[in-house]
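Please go through this protein, sequence plus structure tokens, and consider how the sequence yields the tokens. Keep your notes short.
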Amino acid sequence: MRLATCFALLGACLLSVAVAAPDFIAPPAFAQQAGGGDTGGEEHPPRTAGAERSGGLIDLLPADAVSEHVLQTAAGPLPYSATAGTLALRGQDGKVTAKIFYTAYRARDRAPGRPVTFAFNGGPGASSAYLHLGLVGPKILPFSGDNADGSRPALTDNPESWLAFSDLVLIDPVGTGWSRAVSDEAAGRFYSVRQDAESLAKAISLYLRDNADLLPAPKYLLGESYGGFRAAKVALAMKNSQGLIPSGIVMISPLMEGRFVFGNDGDPLAAALQFPALAAAELERQGRFDPEKVSEAERFAMTDYLATLAGPWPQGEAAEAFYRRIAGWTGLSEQAIAPTRGFVGDLYAKQAGGPGRILSPYDAGETHADAYPESVFVRNDDPVLEGYTRAYAAAFAAYARDSLGFRTEMTYTLLNEEVNRRWEWNGGRGGDSRVTSSIASDLRDLLSTIPSFRLMVAHGYSDILTPFGASRYVLNQLPSTLAEGRTQLTLYRGGHMFYTRDDDRRQIFQDARAFYR
């Protein structure tokens, strides 16, 4: 399975071609849970008017739309205001170079010290709709019942919205959602690790300028997949370029070390760090999931498995015993394992699910029909990336239009392949520049220079794309004087977007609320 390619195509997650314009997709119905108190998106006068005209596509972006709503939570009704709008980024000549689309939710009666969280997805090239409608926003898009495959989307109230303990600002980086540069040439200047981080830090600064009462609030970042990598870079840019000190970061299924995702072919350590996720997914598929068994798989992975992969090819009875143990953990046959000498990551998605079935690296705990059973390798569109999660695009566009009052003819771009293809990682595009990309030193700097800074990392057990073992390794390598009591790893059933499971979404809500406290 082309795991590196798949990661390049996501961030919750995610990347492929831009989603079709909402005009060509039937808008979803909007259902409310019993007792829902949404006001229906009553609009206030636009907060901005007579916006500067820059020419081109960004002139299709309307003025900011502000509306009032009420969310029913376990603690009672939560009145809040919603703003769907844009922030203008300017070049050295003072002219607009891009506009960043964002959606902000603010509790109407905020308590002193209430945090504000700035959230984004990854890719690079993914919009924030995944975290927005999947996890933290006041509305969610459930993938269950009639909408299990995304074909009948209907938004519902989210009683586990993180708005219960933090104001929220969800941001779409340039080239995603409704965020656009004034030209293709200008867009390219945003498609790099450094410029992306600087532009998002500037957008955060601009938002706080317009909402000055939030400046004293604790400021958190939330990022998924590449968005976790991005969050560390943005946090440093906030501090160093904008004079804003972040209080912490929550990372969902993050990329932390490029070498464990993009350069893992034949790397014993990368294979060992992925192995527990393979075992967890096999246990999930067999209906035998047990965290203690996963811990046992971790011990095997970091001892006998790692030592054997790092040594000479196993021979004779030792080889047979080794391959038998791998087969027991992964569901692969010993015959298939033997030619790989134990590096089974590339076999897994095609063969571990059984004849005629494949696995998605985003959630290997479930199997899907193989469109190309005669092929030796996986040729399918990914069942998660190219399947049900695409429904987030039309659902968000309709929600922004009908409930938030943000109306534009522009296509809402859920996933932008062009952004990913042009992305500059560590001074270059693709190849070694991705492999050597890391946030380990960024985390050390943040923990060292901000004594109150804290980090929460959350993973799904069955995510074999950005496996939890890789994040555990990075956290374990931090000096205890920095990490003790200030970093944590939380694990959940499910895959890369584990929050699409109701139980997991509820659990991370509780864990995140405790982390913020």
